[in-house]
Amino acid sequence: MKATTPLILLPAAMLMGNSIAYICLAVIGLCSVSELRDQKCRGLLRHCFTENKWPWLVLSAFSLVFIIIQSVSPIADFAYVSELKWVGILILGLVPTAILIRELPSTKVDKISLLITILLTCFCVAVALIQVATKADPLQYLFTEGEGDARGRGLLRNPIPFGHLMACFFLIGCVVAALGATHSLWGRRAVLLGIGVGSVCFVGLLASQTRGAWAALPIAALAGLVCLPWRSKRVWFGAMSLFGLIGLAALLLTPSIRSRFASGFDPSAEANRQRLEHWHANWEILKDNPFGIGYSANEVLIESVF
Q1: Confidence class of residue 86 from pLDDT cuts 50, 70 and 90?
Q2: How far is CA 290 from CA 65, 139, 302, in A?
């Protein structure tokens, strides 16, 4: 199995829950290690490091500080280190990602994996729309039942991670479309695929009503204008502008989305009041501990700050 195959299936695994995502991540790691035996792959990996030194230096510095703080902090708990799976996805996925960008899905297995991921994504978005329309889970007898609210969550129990995944997949689709418009190896099919996947995931993002993911999109749009190659920026700007107008129309025409958006600015709401208190408390903790306090230590110190 090539390292790109489990990477293509990783989004589908994440849409089905943490357990399957962990298994897929482990397979990615094993495949990446096996790929490193190939001299061409090692050269490609060296190229990734030499062309992007600063991000890797920042990540290395963060990792070093984290290990030191986690080791010396008297109240840090290693039980929460599992949340670093996202850093693991970044590092272990580097090799197959580099191969995927360089060669694109060419084998039959990779193409089938891509088709499975796209179909499962579309299915999850369709389930999320049903959950929003009916305020019920049509798959509650097959999967773990979530709360009966009006927010879409797909196959997951919580709409928040579903919204975050939809936002990530949406941005990936837009990046594929932007690069495909100017990259000779990608071509028109990549543009259509990126726009199609991005559109479906944008609908899922709206259905999740995850305000944090909504707020992150404008920042990501500006980052794309800075980071993408010059020839791709026009396509990126056009895509972001188009989806921004669609989002604005959904905000104006859909009462549930409008209510959810407005609730984020209500200082009397219990959730917003708690967030403000936590932000203030964490700022006080940060001023006393500028290098951090370690995993789970926040839950101990925040009580004293309150």
Answers
A1: low
A2: 11, 46, 15
What tens digit of pLDDT does each residue of 49-75 get?
777 678 778 878 887 887 788 777 777
- What tokens were used for 161? 């991670």
Structure tokens at 7: 């990477």
The chain-wide mean pLDDT, for the chain, equals 81
Residue-by-residue DSSP string for 139-192: TTTTS-----SSS--TTSS-HHHHHHHHHHHHHHHHHHHHHHTT-TTTHHHHHH
CA distance 195 to 203: 12
Do 6 and 111 contact (CB within 8 A), yes or no? no
Q: Measured between alpha carbons, how far is 26 from 306 in angstroms, rounded to an integer?
A: 40
Provide the residue type at 219 as one letter.
I
Structure tokens at 120: 């499962």
What is the per-residue DSSP string for the chain? --THHHHHHHHHHHHT-HHHHHHHHHHHHHHHHHHTTSHHHHHHHHHHHHH-HHHHHHHHHHHHHHHHHHHH-SS--GGGGGGGHHHHHHHHTHHHHHHHHHH-S-SHHHHHHHHHHHHHHHHHHHHHHHHHHHSS-TTTTTS-----SSS--TTSS-HHHHHHHHHHHHHHHHHHHHHHTT-TTTHHHHHHHHHHHHHHHHHHHHHHT-HHHHHHHHHHHHHHHHHS-HHHHHHHHHHHHHHHHHHHHHHHH-HHHHHHHHHTT-TTSHHHHHHHHHHHHHHHHHHH-TT---TTHHHHHHHHH-
pLDDT tens digits for range 197-213: 999 999 999 999 999 89
